[in-house]
Amino acid sequence: MEILHVVGARPNFMKAAPVVAALHGCDHIQQTLVHTGQHYDFNMSEVFFQELGLPAPDVNLEVGSGSHAQQTSQIISRFETVVLDGKPDLVVVYGDVNSTVASALVCAKLMVPVAHVEAGLRSFDRTMPEEVNRLLTDQLSDLLFTPSEDGNDNLKREGVDPGKVHLVGNVMIDTLIRMLPKAAERLPKNVPEDYVLVTLHRPSNVDDIDWLTSLVEVLQDISCELPVLFPVHPRTRQRMAELEIWSSHKYTGFQLLKPAPYLEFLALQSRARVVITDSGGIQEETTFLGVPCLTVRDNTERPITVDVGTNVLVGRNTQQIRKEVASVLAGRAKRGSIPPLWDGHAAERIAAVIAG
Ligand code: UD1
User: How much is the pTM?
Assistant: First the structure.
């Protein structure tokens, strides 16, 4: 059986690593890894392959950046050739990025079966490009692996045949559990004892200049109480440079850093007093780690992190951010527990279904 995995952007790599490893032991399975090249900077891509022990991609489509239409259409046309040449029996796609939907569409047209890892998540907000990617990818998939029960409920409501859907748990947590002992050694030496960790990259937060400006003001105020460590995504860095926040800020506790490699970021998360983010995966990782998380969004496709975990949605509301940070600093952080099946074995359950 020939299985082809497609990855493209930073959050795909830690999801694919355990699935590739779990299928590695099956005699009758050959695997090919395709990187679309959606993310291409060393710190956004190659360092993750090194740290996660992912094999180097067999093919790199090198699509790079562009508008959604440009990026998606480049992946579609370049990936079609790979599928026609390789004739895979199954293509496995991950998460909700442009690489995910583009490769699923190619397969659906060529009638090659698709498995979607992290199926069924919904924010119900179609202004998010990822929500469109999720909806379409799930409609195009033949095997749908969900991380939590809400994913199954969403797919049922959308009319997806329940026979295709498998509740397997969270592959991102498989990687976290495997890597946590190593991560402890990677905490940078000069990290303060106590700090707030921040990541922001969603267009809804960083492409709106007025909102980004007020968000940075709040973070700078917080940094007067507790150091704020902010590894900055390339998209956000561009916007901050345009606003001259990058070069001219005067708050010593407000530390703008390069995007962090996986192990370093995991170490930083596990020691943070509170994480402020708009990422999807970080909502899950903080829930597993029991670290308070404030999500700067009005909604989440990962409601289990709010219902069960440590996540609080603060919306686009600076008052709410200040209030929730004050609660954490006063020792009233939200406590949570770990969702069912986030146990380090999700990829094994996926491999069992695929290998039959
Ligand atoms: C993409 C995903 C998003 C995911 C995020 C994780 C989509 C629609 N979005 O958003 O779901 O949460 O990745 O990071 O697929 N850039 C670089 N170097 C790189 C990659 C990007 O400098 O290696 C810059 C480019 O200027 C690019 C911009 O970042 O235009 C945005 O990159 P892009 O891949 O379009 O989307 P992300 O914001 O990274």
Answer: 0.97
Same-domain check for residues 144 and 105? yes
Does one domain contain both 28 and 94?
yes
**Domain tally, the chain:** 2
Q: Is 74 in the pocket of ligand 1 (CB under 6 A)?
A: no
Are 312 and 324 contacting, i.e. CB atoms less than 8 angstroms apart?
A: yes
Which tens digit of pLDDT belongs to each residue from 308-335?
Answer: 999 999 999 999 999 999 999 999 999 9
Whether 40 lines ligand 1, by a CB cut-off of 6 Å, is: yes
For the purposes of burial, counting CB atoms within 10 Å of the CB of 170, is it exposed (0-12), middle (13-18) or buried (19 or more)?
buried
- Three-state SS for 277? strand
In a domain, 267, yes or no: no
* pLDDT score at 246: 76
What's the average model confidence in pLDDT over 260-273? 97
* Closest to 151 in 3D by CA, of 16, 341, 334: 341
CA–CA dist 147, 303 (Å, integer): 12
Is residue 350 in some structural domain? yes
Same domain, 27 and 164: yes
Best mutation site among 93, 97, 262, 277 for ligand 1, i.e. most ligand atoms within 8 A of its Cβ?
97
pLDDT tens column, 202-238 = 999 999 999 999 999 999 999 999 999 999 999 999 9
Owning domain of residue 218: 189-259+272-329
- The active-site residue out of 201, 233, 249, 345 is 201
